[in-house]
Amino acid sequence: MDTSLPSFRARCLEAALDLLWRQWCSLGVAGHAMPANVAHLIDPEALLLATTSVGRHDPRLFDEALDWLGTYGSIFNLQRLKSLQKSTGLGDARVLAAVADWLASHGGQPKWKALARQRATPAPVLLFSGAPPRETDPTFLAHGLLRSPVRPRGMSRDPHPLLPPNLVVSLRALIGVSARVEVILCLAGGAAAHASELARLTGHAPRTLQALLQEMTLSGHLLTQESAGPGTGKVRRGANRRFHVQPGDWAFLTSGQPLPQWVPWGAVFSLVQGVLAAIPAPGEKASHHAVISSKLRDALTTHGQALASTGLLPALDLRSQAPGAELIQTLAERLPASIACL
User: Fold this and answer.
1) How many structural domains are present in the chain?
2) Cβ atoms of residues 285 and 267 within 8 Å
3) Rounded Cα gap, residues 327 and 295, in angstroms
4) If you write DSSP's letter for every residue of 278-303 in order, what string do you get?
5) How many CB atoms within 10 Å of residue 171?
6) Tens digits of per-residue pLDDT, 272-285?
7) Residue 254 in domain
8) 77 assigned to some structural domain
């Protein structure tokens, strides 16, 4: 296997774009891709954020996703989108603002205006690689991005409500766009968790989630269990409370099939984004291996806890004190294939 930096970057990008295509097509984007992993939930907000950065390497993917958003963008949680971007660093803020502006002005979805604030920008840059377009899209140009005019094909489909990976979208369509959806699905497909763990996993603000969890317990479907504090043997009410649900209560969502697992996609896509940022693209100025390995190590450290829960970190089998050259080689050998399995 070629483990050179250019090859590593190219294979990582290919695996990430394939993953984006699989998830978007599962939601109804027009395209051809292998089915999304039925054991994993799709996170719409993380998917969109990844598309504003990684998706710029595939103009067709970007535009088909924009086409779909023009019809179904109302199903997104904008507060969570902002919180997830802030906590993970995922996505390109300028591109997200342009997408939000386009959805508000051309997609008939005024709520997106809240994310469309224009910032003072330097000279416009290309949204996609290649030659500058002969004609530019005015909405994207207002955000300092050069691209040809957006021309939706209108070939997007409704999200299939019975596909397990689509459950976040399906449940939002049923009970509304709120943190309740992520709480239910995160716990239904996983283990009991503290409020702080749920906030980290789902990308919601801890304070908001704490109040919501207390309210949800009144339903009788969100259950709690108290555990003794470390080293004390005493139960402090509330301090060590873990929340859980009975998966059987939600089996109707998948017609009795196993519920898919919540995956912290924000961390996964952020790692990919970090790899692409650390390794110069062809034609860019080369960086020293020590600089690249340092950036990769920082990305792994930042998202390590979340990545461990996906099984991705164990699959990489990295030595904590591995020198830079070994770190790069190990990631080059294992990361693209691990992403492809998600």
Assistant:
1) 1
2) no
3) 11
4) HSPPTTSPP--HHHHHHHHHHHHHHH
5) 20
6) 999 999 999 988 88
7) no
8) yes
